[in-house]
Write a sequence for this structure.
């Protein structure tokens, strides 16, 4: 299902990118300064999960978790190699992690105290992709100054490692008793992303990098989370950071 969603994107990349690369040969160096051929960007920001489907429906109905309650700080790094003046192939990785507390909405223990637990979700995507800069990021014609603003679009895919952990006290709905426990599920899942952003030059080789991206992925929950099926891992991340072109 995930691969089917991204089939039109893959076809577009195969058909469109080679012709774009051929048309966008590297411009010659200006005043003896070579055009940038590679880029390293490090970004940080916030990652908000979509949180749809069986597990999230049950968790937000029974517990005081909200669908935005596991929005997490995130860090990502991306390396890009230019195939032409406006097209790059990219390799990136990131991590987001958040632990949040909750309690049952409609149950308390025999002492009339909250029945509390903690939920932790971690996502680590490792992806490759293509990036198309709407303007060439190199030097402006006849100038040693870099282009000031370079907007871009990007898309790609790879694998995402995820880990869900709940620990604390839980209601056993067979007898309404309260039991302590820790429940964990983890694994690798195929993932795809689409992104848009802008690089703003801060110096001859340094840029302020602003990026927004939507990632889709779905993990398979095991026996420790019965009846919940798969885990929606889709999210929207908004990040800012620093990039270096060389």
């Amino acid at each position: 299902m995930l691969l089917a969603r991204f089939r039109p994107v893959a076809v577009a990349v195969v058909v469109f990118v080679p012709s774009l690369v051929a048309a966008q040969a590297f411009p010659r160096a200006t005043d003896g300064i070579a055009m940038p051929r590679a880029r390293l960007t490090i970004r940080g920001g916030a990652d908000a999960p979509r949180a749809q489907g069986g597990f999230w429906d049950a968790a937000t109905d029974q517990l005081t978790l909200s669908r935005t309650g596991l929005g997490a700080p995130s860090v990502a790094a991306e390396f890009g190699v230019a195939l032409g003046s406006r097209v790059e192939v990219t390799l990136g990785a990131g991590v987001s992690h958040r632990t949040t507390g909750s309690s049952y909405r409609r149950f308390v223990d025999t002492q009339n105290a909250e029945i509390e637990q903690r939920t932790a979700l971690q996502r680590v995507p490792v992806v490759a992709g293509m990036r198309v800069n709407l303007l060439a990021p190199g030097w402006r014609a006849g100038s040693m100054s870099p282009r000031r603003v370079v907007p871009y679009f990007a898309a790609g895919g790879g694998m995402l490692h995820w880990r869900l952990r709940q620990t604390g006290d839980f209601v056993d709905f067979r007898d309404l008793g309260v039991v302590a426990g820790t429940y964990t599920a983890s694994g690798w899942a195929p993932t795809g992303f689409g992104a848009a952003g802008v690089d703003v030059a801060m110096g001859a080789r340094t840029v302020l990098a602003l990026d927004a991206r939507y990632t889709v992925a779905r993990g398979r929950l095991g026996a420790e989370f019965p009846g919940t099926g798969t885990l929606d891992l889709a999210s929207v991340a908004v990040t800012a950071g620093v990039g270096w072109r060389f």
User: Anything to note?
Assistant: The chain is about 10% helix and 60% strand. The first strand starts at residue 38 and ends at 49. The longest helix spans residues 7-23.
